[in-house]
Amino acid sequence: MSKDIATLEQYRKDQTYCGVWSSTRALKRATEHLTKIEEASRRGE
């Protein structure tokens, strides 16, 4: 029983890690995109 719980906890950690990793990548991409927009608007002024 306790072994199953440990496996479940590890699975949850792996899922959380994957979620955080993909969120970080998406956030980085969004940040780069916003930076490009800001630079373009500065040049336009």
Main beta-sheet strand count, sense and barrel state: none
- Structural shape: rod-shaped
Mean pLDDT: 89
- The helix-and-strand class reads mainly alpha
Helical content (DSSP H or I, runs of 4+): over 70%
Into which percentage range does the β-strand content fall?
A: under 5%
Number of strands: 0
Distance between the termini: 66 Å
Are there runs of 5+ residues with pLDDT below 50, and where?
none
**What's the Cα radius of gyration?**
19 Å
Write the H/E string, N to C: H
Number of helices: 1
Please, could you describe this protein's structure?
There is one protein chain. The protein has one helix and no strands. With 45 residues, the protein is mainly alpha-helical. The longest helix is centred in the middle third of the chain and has 43 residues, at 2-44. It is rod-shaped, with a radius of gyration of 19 Å.
Task: Give a summary of the structure in a few sentences.
With 45 residues, this protein is mainly alpha-helical. 96% of the residues lie in helices and 0% in strands.
Topology (elements, then pairings):
Elements: H1 2-44
